Each structure stands twice: as C-alpha cells, then as structure tokens.
Automatic annotation (TrEMBL):
It comes from the Bacteria. Keywords: DNA-binding, Transcription, Transcription regulation. CDD domains: HTH_LacI, PBP1_GntR. PROSITE patterns: HTH_LACI_2. This is Gluconate utilization system GNT-I transcriptional repressor. Gene3D superfamilies: 3.40.50.2300, lambda repressor-like DNA-binding domains. SMART domains: HTH_LACI. The keyword Acetylation does not apply. It comes from Citrobacter youngae. InterPro entries: HTH_LacI, Lambda_DNA-bd_dom_sf, Peripla_BP/Lac1_sug-bd_dom, Peripla_BP_I. Residues 1-41 form the HTH lacI-type domain.
Length: 311
C-alpha cells in the first residue's frame, strides 16, 4: 500500500519514504503496469492531443505548456498530428479513443459529424483549443479569429493604409481572420481583393515568393500576412527589391512569434498567449477528470495588437 501511494500519489507520502521507494524502483528496474492500474482505477492517466502540425511555433508552445501542466497533475499526453483535413482528424480520434484516454484535446471547433458522435458516445472530457464558439463539444480555450481580422482592419484604417495586399495560408482559422479583415475594410469602402494563397506550412520562402507575385500585379501600401513567418519572408523580399519597410511598404503578421520583436524591422503583429491556452486547457481537463467543480468551461484568452516598426 505504501509503495502504491508513493508511486501514484507521492504528494500524500513523506518525502523520505518516497525516496526509499524510488531507490528500490531504480535498483530493480521496476516499471509500473499502467494497464493494470488503469483497470483498477478506471483511469489511464493519458490525455489524447490532436494538433494540425508541430512544425509551427504557435502549436509547439501550446503543446509544451499543456504537457507541463498535465504532468504536474500526474497525466501524460499522447500526441497526434492530423494535418488540416477533418477526415484525418476523425480517423485519429477514433484510434486514440481505443487507448481509453482520460480526456481529449482537439484543435479548433470544426469537426466531422461522425467524429462528434464518436466523442460524445465516449463520454470523456474534451477541450477544444485555438478557436471560440458559445457551443463547444464540451469545454473550450481560445479566442475569436474574426475579431483578430477586425482589429487588424481598424489598425490599417487608423494608420491611413488604403491599398492592402493579403499573403495567406489556406487553413480554416486563417480564413476566419481574413474574413473578419475583409468585411471590416469593405464597410469603409476598401476592397482587399489582391490576395496570394500559399500552401501549408508557412515558410520564409513562401513569404518571399508570395510578395513577389503580389507586386507583379500592382503596388500596395501594406501587406497583411496570416503569420509572422510569412511577414518575415515578405520583409526580406521587399528589402531585396529596394523597398523600405515601412516607409514604402508596411507589413503586418500574426502570432507574435519569438523572432518578431527581434527582427529588423521588428514585426507589427497580433499577440496571443499561446502558453496560457495550453495551461488552461490542461487545468480544465484535469479538474473535470478529478471532479473538481468549475464554472468557466469556455475561456476566451483574448489577443492584442503589438505595434512595431514594420507597420
């Protein structure tokens, strides 16, 4: 019983006793049988996490904080990458649920009807992240992409930019930001109809080639990008053509990635607390699993525009 408590709930055991148990574990090479423990407790201590990609700093920071927070509560993540296709996500979730996780984290709020049915039938806690809706599957931590687009439009209008070009990836959340931006500009008589779509994942090279395609069509006073990575590439391409940023061409990104403030010129962007998304999602899940009452099943982490040199 003491060994069991030391391994499963060490916070309830005296530190010296825990250390003696761990010495024995190290000496014998003992590995706890998680399957047997799960049968006894009806918990696997696994949290299934589905993200579209991991070669993206925004998701990496969220995954890391999610993993760190869950580890402190005694849980571990089982990570899968779905790309940006709902059908792949549905197949992955079905496979993950066969592992009997204690909870699931999904990226976004748009899923196939079949996947939603499978999730609801599983009757386990679910947190959707990186998006916002009043009607999540279960719980949600995110922000409004439409409002991000509106905020960028307000900034462009305040600064006097009237000839925008868009450099954009074709994922759904980026599309929501673009829609919010275009709708807000249209209400002021500005058509953001010059647009280049680039494939995922975003890269510096795509930022450079995308701007080159835009500039082949017409001149602009500002380029709005769906990510800081594309913005950085656009700045490099502009300067290679002798265009001074922002005097001759302003550039705006999204994400406030680690390099954005250190870039020269520093990138004007939208900042989202990526780590807070992971931390709060982990807390929601762990509290639900452990039946700790909560009132905030929907958390809007918000965002803010960071004005820097590039615009």
């Amino acid at each position: 019983m003491t060994v069991s408590r030391a391994l499963n709930t060490p916070q309830l055991v005296r530190p010296k006793t825990v250390e003696k148990v761990m010495q024995a574990v190290r000496a014998t090479g003992y590995i706890p049988n998680a399957l047997a423990g799960g049968l006894a407790s009806r918990r696997s201590k696994l949290i299934a996490v589905v993200v579209p990609q991991i070669n993206n700093n925004m998701f990496v920071d969220t995954i890391q904080s999610l993993s760190d927070e869950l580890a402190e509560r005694g849980y571990h993540i089982l990570l899968c990458v779905s790309g940006y296709t709902p059908q792949t996500e549905a197949e992955l979730v079905a496979t993950l649920l066969s592992r009997r996780p204690d909870g699931v984290v999904l990226t976004g709020i748009h899923h196939t009807a079949g996947m939603k049915k499978v999730i609801l039938n599983a009757a386990i806690p679910v947190v959707e992240i990186w998006d916002l809706t009043p009607t999540p599957i279960d719980m949600l931590v995110g922000f409004s992409h439409e409002k991000v687009g509106q905020a960028v439009a307000d900034y462009l209008l305040k600064k006097g930019y009237r000839r925008p070009g868009l450099l954009w990836t074709a994922d759904r959340r980026a599309g929501q930001r673009k829609q919010g931006l275009c709708d807000a500009l249209r209400r002021h008589g500005i058509a953001a109809d010059a647009q280049i779509d680039v494939p995922l994942p975003a890269s510096l090279a795509l930022g450079r080639s995308g701007l080159a395609q835009l500039l082949a069509e017409r001149t602009f006073d500002v380029i709005v990008c769906s990510s800081d990575t594309l913005a950085q590439g656009a700045i490099m391409e502009a300067e290679s053509r002798g265009l001074c940023v922002p005097q001759e061409l302003a550039v705006i990104g999204f994400g406030d990635l680690d390099f954005a403030a250190s870039n020269r010129p520093a990138i004007t962007t939208i900042s989202v607390d990526r780590r807070a998304i992971g931390q709060r999602a982990a807390t929601l899940l762990a509290d639900r699993i452990e039946q700790i009452p909560r009132e905030d099943d929907i958390i809007d982490v918000g965002f803010h525009l960071v004005e820097r040199e590039s615009a």
